[in-house]
Amino acid sequence: MGALGTERGTTLLAEHLRIRHEVEAIVDLARERGLADDSALRLDLVRAWTEARIMEWNGLRLMSAIKAAGHGAVKAGRVDPTVQASVSKVFASSAHIRMGELAMRVAGAEAELAGPDYALDRLQQVFLGSRAEAIYGGTTQIQYNVLGERTLGLPREAR
Fold it and tell me: Where are the domains of the chain?
């Protein structure tokens, strides 16, 4: 379980750079379309940028926890890497779904159009792919169970 949890979290490490580029593409599209002055949209753009940074920091925190675990830090009361991986996964899944929805709002009606041979542009791929992220690597609901049992000490879910 520990290996799977850590693998789940370390997968996100490489993703944070890609996600930051996605947010930059959404911001650029908003500027191109003259939407950057819309205060509600600006708030959502700032939230997306902030959440991308939080994903990056969660990834770095996970790496620190993995490194510390090798030195007995978990026994010393520090963060368990499997718990940190679950926290990172839950946050990233939810935030990336919001980013995909924001991208489609910025794209407007064009978001509903596919290119030649049904090709999707990068932001359409983000929107659809973000939905799958809430499932692969352990669904968000499973991650909530892991966090409840391992972090809060709640009883195991009845089977």
Answer: 2-150
CA nearest neighbour of 8 among 74, 84, 69: 84
Tell me, yes or no, if 101 is annotated catalytic: no
Q: Please tell me the predicted confidence (pLDDT) of residue 150.
A: 80
90 touches 147 (CB < 8 A):
yes
Q: Of the residues 7, 110, 149, 157, which is catalytic?
A: 7
Which CATH number among 1.20.140.10, 1.10.10.10, 1.10.1780.10, 2.40.240.10 corresponds to the domain 2-150? 1.20.140.10
- Using CA atoms, how far apart are residues 51 and 86, in angstroms rounded to an integer? 16
CA angle 145, 44, 126 (to 5 degrees): 65
15-71 tens-digit pLDDT: 778 899 999 999 999 999 999 899 999 999 999 999 999 998 888 888 787 777 765
67 and 77 Cβ atoms separated by less than 8 Å: no
